[in-house]
């Protein structure tokens, strides 16, 4: 296993948001081991976000202990339920802290240290625990909200700088690795990427770094990346939206379609938000599943034997396993769909009706029949704790990166200037606000 830093990696350490100095400089055994900068920052952001949630749960606990505030809470929730709600807040705070610590463990390279043989597992865990305690002391709790927010902004800026660097380099060099060209117009020296190669290209790109969950999402992501790379598109993915708008308007003017450009962009925005919300939902499910699996003592038992029946994290984990295996052309298992990227729709209205008319799913989140459900149950039931633990680590990283990439695309919609995109812009803003994601308003 490679342990020296290479391009896109650096030695494992955590830095102060003010000075840039290592938070724990007395760990010489870890300095030689490489960690992806993007992975580190994205897991630190996740850890900080969950610490913020933890402080909210603890704030409720403190409020309940205050006689004056307890009365106000009782007026809202009722005297009989307030203690039960408080107990739930305490459990949620404990679970959130564990999840924050797991994200921190990935950011600080605990698993990399163990896998590389640099440190034994007990030593790596002690190191991580010490690091996290200092990290939590500095950035946890309501009193540290300001410093936590500053560090989040710095980490976000670091991520965007790396991502812009990839885009700028591709544009300057005339590289368009995600360009999809029809076979009949390929140059003699050009090769059409197959589906697995396209999945791998998305997964290996530092601006994305995840596996799309359907063919439709895959094609959408490829188009976004190519618009980012193409120097003819100064607005990036928003150039695509403007092109779609103008094309649809021309078709409508000719009487070929009923739906105009504004409605087309609105429909695409609903679909983009579907992908973003699915990434968030699956991330939460996987993080919750990880807290269960971490407590399981016997690595040989199956998850179905130990987990609450119907845990949604199981299907998210099976989905990642199947798509990753498909991308690497592994032999298909009996418990795997022939095509794990099949797109599913839950449609309840026609495309030209106002508002949202469908939700885009994959066959894991929306099984079509009892046969599909049986395949998924079999796959989840046969997975052992030993297999699930390392798989959960990469599946969580996958969904974090998916959410980050799609969140940026939603932010682009929120910055669309023309009034004709008002509905799409408002939908994007509402989505971002619900997750407290900041954006520059261009309206």
Can you walk me through this structure?
With 443 residues, this protein is mostly helical. It has 15 helices and 4 strands. Strands 1-2 form a two-stranded antiparallel sheet. A two-stranded antiparallel sheet has the order 3-4. The longest helix is centred in the middle third of the chain and has 34 residues. The chain is globular.
Show the helix and strand layout.
Elements: E1 9-11, E2 34-36, H1 37-65, H2 67-77, H3 79-107, H4 110-116, H5 121-139, H6 145-173, H7 195-204, H8 215-229, H9 237-253, H10 261-294, H11 303-306, H12 312-327, E3 343-347, E4 358-362, H13 370-381, H14 385-414, H15 422-434
**Unreliably modeled segments:** 1-13, 15-31
Class derived from helix and strand content: mainly alpha
State the strand order across the main sheet: 1-2
Major sheet characteristics: 2 strands, antiparallel
Gap from first CA to last CA? 50 Å
Measured by DSSP, the beta-strand proportion falls in: under 5%
The proportion of residues forming helix, as a percent range, comes to 55-70%
Shape: globular
Order of helices and strands: EEHHHHHHHHHHHHEEHHH
Q: How large is the count of helical segments?
A: 15
Mean pLDDT: 82
| Radius of gyration using CA atoms only | 23 Å
Number of strands: 4
């Amino acid at each position: 296993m490679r342990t020296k830093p290479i391009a896109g990696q650096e030695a494992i350490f955590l830095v102060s948001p003010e000075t840039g100095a290592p938070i724990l400089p007395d760990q010489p055994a870890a300095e030689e081991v490489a960690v992806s900068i993007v992975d580190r920052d994205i897991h630190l952001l996740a850890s900080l976000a969950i610490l913020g949630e933890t402080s909210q749960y603890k704030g409720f606990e403190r409020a309940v202990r205050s006689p004056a505030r307890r009365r106000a809470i009782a007026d809202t929730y009722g005297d009989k339920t307030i203690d039960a709600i408080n107990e739930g807040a305490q459990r949620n705070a404990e679970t959130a802290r564990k999840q924050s610590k797991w994200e921190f463990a990935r950011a600080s390279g605990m698993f990399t240290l163990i896998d590389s043989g640099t440190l034994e597992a007990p030593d790596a865990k002690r190191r991580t625990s010490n690091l996290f305690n200092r990290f939590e002391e500095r950035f946890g709790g309501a009193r540290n909200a300001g410093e936590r927010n500053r560090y989040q902004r710095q980490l976000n800026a670091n991520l965007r700088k790396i991502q812009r660097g990839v885009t700028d380099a591709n544009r300057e060099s005339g590289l368009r690795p995600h360009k999809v060209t029809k076979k009949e117009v390929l140059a003699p020296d050009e090769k059409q990427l197959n589906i697995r190669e396209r999945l791998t290209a998305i997964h290996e790109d530092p601006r994305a770094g995840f596996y799309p969950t359907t063919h439709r999402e895959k094609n959408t992501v490829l188009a976004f990346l190519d618009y980012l790379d193409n120097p003819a598109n100064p607005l990036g993915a928003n150039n695509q939206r403007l092109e779609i708008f103008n094309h649809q308007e021309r078709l409508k003017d000719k009487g070929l379609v009923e739906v105009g450009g504004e409605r087309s962009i609105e429909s695409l925005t609903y679909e983009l938000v579907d992908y973003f919300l699915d990434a968030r939902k699956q991330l939460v499910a996987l993080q919750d599943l990880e807290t269960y699996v971490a407590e399981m003592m016997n690595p040989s038992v199956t998850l179905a034997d130990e987990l609450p029946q119907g845990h949604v994290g199981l299907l998210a984990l099976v989905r990642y396993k199947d798509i990753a295996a498909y991308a690497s052309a592994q032999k298909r298992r009996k418990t795997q769909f022939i095509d794990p990227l099949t797109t599913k729709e839950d449609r309840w209205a026609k495309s030209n009706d106002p508002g949202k008319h469908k939700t885009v799913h994959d066959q894991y989140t929306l099984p079509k029949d009892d046969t599909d459900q049986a395949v998924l149950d079999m796959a989840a039931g046969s997975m052992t704790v030993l297999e699930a633990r390392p798989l959960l680590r990469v599946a969580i990283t996958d969904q974090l990166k998916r959410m980050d990439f799609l969140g940026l695309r939603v932010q682009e919609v929120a910055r669309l200037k023309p009034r004709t995109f008002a509905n799409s812009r408002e939908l994007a803003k509402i989505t971002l606000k619900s997750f407290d994601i900041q954006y520059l308003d261009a309206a």
